[in-house]
Protein: Histidine biosynthesis bifunctional protein HisIE
Amino acid sequence: MKIDFNKNNGLVPVIIQDSRTFQVLMLGYMNEEAFEKTEKEGVVTFFSRSKNRLWTKGEESGHFLKVENISIDCDQDTILIKAVPTDTVCHTGSFSCFGEKETKGFLYELEAKIGERIDHKAEDSYTYSLYQRGINKMAQKVGEEAVELVIEAKDSNDNLFKNEAADLLYHILILLKAKGFTLEDIEGVLRNRDR
Structure:
C-alpha cells in the first residue's frame, strides 16, 4: 500500500466504517507515523490537528476502533478503514459522528454476536444451548421456524409474521455458524445467480 502523504502537507483523510454494518462512523486524519502505528497495533490512531500529536481513538474514553481492513482510494490519498467499534464512537455520545446506529447491516452485527456466544461458550445463552444440542436440533429448529412463518404468512397479523421471520433469520444464522459459513458466503451465492 503506497499512500501519498505529500499532497496535503503530510496528512490524508481517513474514513472509518463499521466492518459489520458498513455504517460510516467518523472521519479523521493520519500522517505516516499514525498510519504505521495503526497498522502495527490494529487499533486506529489519528494525527490530531487540534492537539498537534498522535491520538489513538479511545485513549481517554476506552472506546477503541479495532482494525479489520485497510484500503486506499484510486488516487492514493484517502484511506478507508473498516473497524469494529468497542462502544460509541462520537464524543457527543452518539454511536457515529454521523448519527445513531442504523439498522442496515444489523444482521452482520447479530451474526458476530451469535459467533461470540458460541465461541465463548456463553452458558446462560439460548444460542449456545441450542448449539450444544447439535446440528440435527439446530436444523430442526430452522424447519420449525420456517413452518411457523408460512402459517403466519397465510394469516393477516403482520406483527406475528414479522416476528416469525425474525425467528427464522436468527436460527439460520446459528445454523450457518455451526456449518462454518457466513452471511457473506450466502450473499456470494445469491450474487452469482442470474434471475
